[in-house]
Amino acid sequence: QVQLVESGGGLVQPGGSLRLSCGASGFTFTGYAMSWYRQAPGKERELVARISAAGGNTNYADSVKGRFTISRDNAKKTVYLQMNSLKPEDTAVYYCYAPRFSSWGQGTQVTVSS
């Protein structure tokens, strides 16, 4: 059974940083790409970043390019999202997603506010 558990969300001031983590279990983590999505109140869920199975290829939404970095530690079966220079418009619930299994984590709230 695929399980994804996010952590690391919270309240941060504009310009601050957070690092989200997503621990995976129930599948061979090293074999599959992973993604981060987010959903703000009243908006559709959107792709933030994706990373290939080995970690060599990454893609980002235009709105986060240059500020967010996705990475993974296959030995720890964990994918990360480092978020810098956070803006109020980054406020959302952030979800980890395993595309091959159409599996979502429970989400972690990120609030950017002064």
Task: Give a structural overview.
The protein has 114 residues and is mainly β. It has strands spanning 3-7, 10-12, 18-25, 34-39, 46-51, 58-60, 68-73, 78-83, 92-98, 103-104, 108-112. Strands 2, 4, 5, 6, 9, 10 and 11 form a 7-stranded mixed β-sheet that branches. Strand 4 and strand 5 form a beta hairpin. The radius of gyration is 13 Å and the shape is globular. The model has no long low-confidence stretch (mean pLDDT 97).
> Averaged pLDDT, please?
97
The radius of gyration over CA amounts to: 13 Å
Low-pLDDT ranges = none
Report the span from N to C terminus.
Answer: 40 Å
Share of helical residues: under 10%
The largest sheet, given as strand count, sense and whether it forms a barrel, is:
7 strands, mixed
Number of strands: 11
- Overall shape: globular
Strand fraction equals over 45%
How large is the count of helical segments?
0
List keywords for this structure.
0% helix; 4-stranded antiparallel β-sheet; 11 strands; 7-stranded mixed β-sheet; 114 residues; mainly beta
SSE map:
Elements: E1 3-7, E2 10-12, E3 18-25, E4 34-39, E5 46-51, E6 58-60, E7 68-73, E8 78-83, E9 92-98, E10 103-104, E11 108-112
Parallel strand pairs: 2-11
Antiparallel strand pairs: 1-3, 3-8, 4-5, 4-9, 5-6, 7-8, 9-10, 9-11
Question: Summary?
Answer:
Helices cover 0% and strands 50% of the residues. With 114 residues, the protein is mainly beta. It is globular and about 40 Å long.
